[in-house]
Please model this.
Amino acid sequence: MPTPDWASSGVRLIVFLFFVVLFRAQGTYWLGRLAAAGSLAAGTHMKAPEERGPVGRVMARMVDWFNGPTPRKGAALLERWGLVIIPLCFLTVGIQTAVNAGSGVVRLKWRTYTLAMIPGCIAWALMYGLGMLAVWQAVLAAIAGSPWAWAAFAGVAALFVGLRWWRRHGESGVSSRVEAALEDGSPAPTSASATAAEQA
Model:
């Protein structure tokens, strides 16, 4: 099976990923600045939620997110660690968006932020670019000409999709049942009470 064009050159893939993360981080920073200036909130509270339309609802959710705990966490990290946290956050999972949004919310100068983020973007592109190439080549080598390898690959993919679906839908169903039980005044079911009920 031939390697696809996007993966045929590691340099092109890394350059592409660099611009992906650059634009994503800059977009998060500028949305944080707009939220801090109140520009995102302008017009979202002028209408009732049901009258806003899809764009108004998305904007209202963005305003709520930028006023929430994630950008505040990023701003706190920036205050605690200084500018070094900006490039370092690109090597982590979970705080990259927080730090970029927090940098915008505290209205860090654009030039300072951009100079601090570029080394992080380079490191992120190298890490993910080389990692993606290695994974792609390993997958091709593993499944080339082997129906059992294809079946195992499909099984892992199905398991991953199933777990994500269960996390999104299954846990919300459990929490809604617990909330309904609390509203009725009856205690929320626990695993011990469920086991005792089954044995009875």
Observations:
- Residues 82 and 135 are 35 Å apart (CA to CA).
- Residues 188-198 have pLDDT under 50 and may be disordered.
- Residues 156-199 form one domain.
- The two ends are 59 Å apart (CA to CA).
